[in-house]
Request: fold
Amino acid sequence: MKRLILLFLYMSALLVSLGAQEERLFREAERRFHGGEYQFAASRYERLIEEYPNSPYVADAKFRQALISMYQQKYPQALEALSRIVDRYPHTRFYEQIPFWQGYGHFRLGDYETALEMFEKAQGAKSENIRRDVLLYLSMTQKRLGQEEGALASARKLIAMLDELTEESEVLLLYTALLLENQRYQELYDLYGELNLDNLDPDIRRRILLYRAEALFQQEEYQDVEPLYNELLEGEEELKLIAFKRLFVLYGRTGQQEKQQEVFDKAQNELAGKPEALAEFLLRAGIQHFQAGRYDLARSFFQRIWRTVSIERVDGLVPLYLSRIMERGGELSEAVRMIEGYLQQSSDQREELLFALVRIQSKQSHWKEAVAGAELFLQDYPGSSKRAEIHYLYAYSLYRGGSHREALAVLQEGLAEGAKAELDLDMLRLRSRIYSRLERIDEAIEDLREYLPRRKGDSSAYIDLAKLAFSKQEWSLIADTLRRYREYREGETELGELALTDPIYIQLN
Reply:
């Protein structure tokens, strides 16, 4: 009996000792984890799991291992570990955190739909700290998915949880940025009235000032915004660059040429050792001059960027604006060479540049090249807002190249998709010409009869309609066409080319 009692006491002491050992191991791992020594902590968690597989600490150790993988940006590995914990260790005390961390992992991987699902699931967490983190990333996820109202609503809930607006700078920056992007200017100004900016870190304070300045700039409150941008010139390089660009545009719009030149000179001086930042400023200055119709000055800025920055790092807007200036000056071949050279090195603004290339090639009457470019555009950008315009250029190039049936098929597709009113009329006019070439006279006449009431100033269309009517010997239609043309020309007796031949004119009158 004594032996049994002694054995029992021995086993109890042994179990207590083992429990104490695994607890010490877990506590050490936790201390290392909270101290940021993740590699060392991971090794202690792994030792605990291997040596004490039945320990009540195993579930928590598994969770910590998943978090360490997350912190080390091993997101797929972390997500796989979290999924196993959900299946095998639902008793871990960290269980309610798992949906948030799953959402976080998917967010970092760019899988925003799944992240959104996880964050919405995690909103029911009991811990307020977890709910704050959930709302922060939920708002950012909604923003990435284009759900602006949802993002703003989540940010508002998060702001309402704060005792002091300045206690969470990341939250404050997100909320003010969302208000700015959604043009909630009054809410933004009201929020500024509640803030004690002196309590903020200087960098955060300047970022908040930037959002306020951007709101005023968008509302064209130039007098109020000027001192804010001048203050931002004392900030870090990113904010300074924005301030330089905005002040240059501001002084241009308000006609303050001397101040604009001062800003230009100061920017050149302060950004001289930063070629990419200087190029970005020159780009904005060039665009401002282009919009003001000062094309030679704009060109000099764009060409300076083109010469000083390696082509693969040049912003795609540079060749785009340069090509427009060249196109205006009739330098079509030069514009084509520049765009083609740029597209071989960079894909920035590729959609816009490819469209410009097709348009210029059609102006050059390089029909085969324009057709090939249009086909490539439609293949690469099926959802483009310029799809209708490229259909027109595609069909027109096929038509001028003699491929009338192919041109008609392309044009029909473009018309079926719908286009803006003016472009729709251009397509209708082109289709009438194609029908004429295909000797589908009735359809050509029908298109012109639909077209002319909507674009009465197209003299060539009256001529074409009269010629088509003559080929069908529809004398009443010819008479009606002449009458409507006279009405448009306000009673002019000279019909010019529309008179066609004297016998027809005599017969009609």
The mean pLDDT is 87. Residues 180-270 form one domain. Residues 404 and 434 are 6 Å apart (CA to CA). Residues 2-34 form the longest helix (33 residues).
